[in-house]
Amino acid sequence: MIRLQNISKVYSRGARPALADIDVEIERGDFVFLVGSSGSGKSTFLKLVLREERPTSGDIYVAGRHLNRLSSWRVPHLRREIGAVFQDFRLLPNKTVFQNVAFALQVIGKGRHHIESTVPEMLDLVGLAGKERRMPHELSGGEQQRVAIARAFVNHPPILLCDEPTGNLDPGTSVGIMRLLDRINRTGTTVLMATHDDEIVDQMRKRVIELRGGQLVRDQDRGVYGLENV
Amino acid sequence: MRLRFILGEVWNGLRRNSTMALSVILVTFVSLTFVGAAALIQIQVDQLKDDWYGKVEVSIFLCPEQSWFQQCAAGAVTPDQERAILTVLEQGSVANLVAPGGIYYESREEAFEKFTQNDTQGVWASLTAEQMQASYRVKLSDPEQFQVVADAVSGLPGVEFVKDQREIFAELFRFLNAATLIAGALAAVMLLAAMMLITTTIRLSALSRRRETTIMRMVGSSRSLIQLPFMLEGAVAATAGALLAIGGLWFSVRYLVEDWLKGSVTWVEYISAQDVWIVAPWLLAIAVGLAAFASVVTLGRYTRA
Predict the structure, then answer these.
(1) Fewest 10 Å CB contacts: which of A69, A165, A225, B124?
(2) Which of B212, B214, B305 has its CB closest to that of A72?
(3) Does any CB of chain B come closer than 8 Å to the CB of residue A99?
(4) Selected residue of A50, A107, A155 to mutate for chain B interface (largest B Cβ count, 10 A)
(5) B160 lies in the same domain as B273
């Protein structure tokens, strides 16, 4: 589903590479934690997958597309196959919960009928049934993140990228979000989640890819957050 | 769905940035009014030229008995010389420039008649027909070709000098052309200001809606859908300005020229409100082009894919 071959990324000439010679393959339906301290290259990794950045060298394949050769006008089609969730939720404050989720479908040209049937389903899935007409500021952080996940997943993309989705949430709420992501993963969706949250990683026991200073230092099935915890 | 979405975004953008939108509308209004005024002045100039040049003649004055001109030192023009001049006009190299039936011989008596008929005070009472001079009055098929005709006959024996009546209007046309230039220069400055304002408006709009555009990029909406609302915002504001300019020009021509000038200064063929419709599409095209150019310059940077 996602394949990086000898990927390196250098932002400015002469600087230390943000990613150095990374080789990773993530299969369809995998659940993968991407861990590492700040500046280890996690964000660059995700940006390469989203094709917000291009690699300096190496090949990257996402959802059957060779991103090195993907022309910029095809990029929107790639992004429709990738849902993205962020630490700061990125909801539109002047739209209701329903409108926030519907927005993702509107702007890729889905019809009103489709939207009106899909969005409530999705809100039901993330546990927000009955809160369609709330505004984001009326929701708790966990609920806001659920809206964001609903928006990312409403188009049923085969890949879900999560950049520290629990970074702004308390541990109890985080567990709820993780259950939701796990549920989405069980539908066959590949989930790639960058995180600092060692408790979650240790509890979930999923595949862990650890980056340090741009290098891949660990790729472990059913792993934990830090090696010292093993 | 998409159309409704785009139009909704455009409306929201204009409403949120209403002062900016208004300033774009006003600046394009003023600048396009100047552009339109310059164009209308030129239409008026062309119309006056068509009208007046059709009436003016080239006057070939023939040597009288006494003349200060060197070329008339031999005395008054002879009938042979007159025939020679006529031959040049009718059959020579300039024959095709002369309007059909456009050559008229004005004898000394006729000139005397014309000259004295308005003289009720007797100022010219001592003047006799012998002191006047005969002339050929020539209408040209193309008045612009005066110089060619003048060169062809001015050296001929018996010709005192050649006069182009257009010289009477030359000053007026110079004035009107200068007015066109000034209006054009003001228009250029204002258009530049309009373009920068549109650029700023689009930029502000794009910045204030960065949250939306970021999400749109993330969920894979096409670049055209992301950028179109901003482009349309600029285009709508500029078009509104152009429509105001067209309205203003129409109003001015209809009430200032057609109703007022036409009633008080009657000897001029004026432009009519119809002429505004000739200029109008160009003003709209300029407005849209301006907005499009400003969008292209701005959007690449602010809503990258």
Answers:
(1) A69
(2) B305
(3) no
(4) A107
(5) no
Closest CA–CA distance from residue A52 to any residue of chain B (Å)? 8
Query: Residue A224 in contact with residue A205, Cβ under 8 Å?
Result: yes
State both tokens at B67: 């003349």
User: A175 CB near a chain B CB, below 8 Å?
Assistant: no
Give the whole-angstrom CA distance, residue B168 versus residue B48: 13
Question: Which 3 state secondary structure label does DSSP give B210?
Answer: helix
Statement to judge: residues B74 and B158 lie in one domain: yes
Cβ–Cβ under 8 Å, residues B278 and B206? no
Nearest to A79 among B1, B5, B219 (CB): B219
* Burial (CB count within 10 angstroms: exposed 0-12, middle 13-18, buried 19+), residue A50: buried
Write the CB contacts of A138 (distance below 8 Å, at least 6 apart in sequence). none
Residues of B whose CB is below 8 A from A72: 223, 305
The alpha carbon of residue B293 is apart from the nearest alpha carbon of chain A, in Å, by 21
Residue B188 and residue B92 in one domain: no
Q: Is the pLDDT of residue B252 over 70?
A: yes
Whether residues B221 and A107 touch (CB distance < 8 A) is answered with yes
Cβ-in-10-Å burial (0-12, 13-18, 19+) of A71 comes to exposed
Task: For residue range A113-171, list pLDDT tens digits in order.
Answer: 999 999 999 999 999 999 999 999 999 999 999 999 999 999 999 999 999 999 989 99
Nearest CB neighbour to B214, from listed A73, A78, A90: A90
Segments forming the whole domain that contains residue B97? 57-165
**Partner-chain residue, chosen from A50, A104, A106, that has the shortest CB–CB distance to B1:** A106
- Structure token pair of residue B104: 């008229």
- Taking the C-alpha atoms of residue A121 and residue B257, their distance in angstroms, rounded to an integer, is 67
The pTM assigned to this predicted structure is: 0.71
One domain for residues B182 and B272:
yes
- B67 vs A178 pLDDT, higher one: A178
Contact A151, A175 (CB under 8 A): no
CA B232, B235, B241, B245 torsion-angle sign: negative
What is the pLDDT averaged over residues B6-30? 87
Q: Are residues B183 and B280 in the same domain?
A: yes
Which residues in chain B have Cβ-Cβ distances shorter than 8 Å to A90? Answer: 211, 214-215, 218
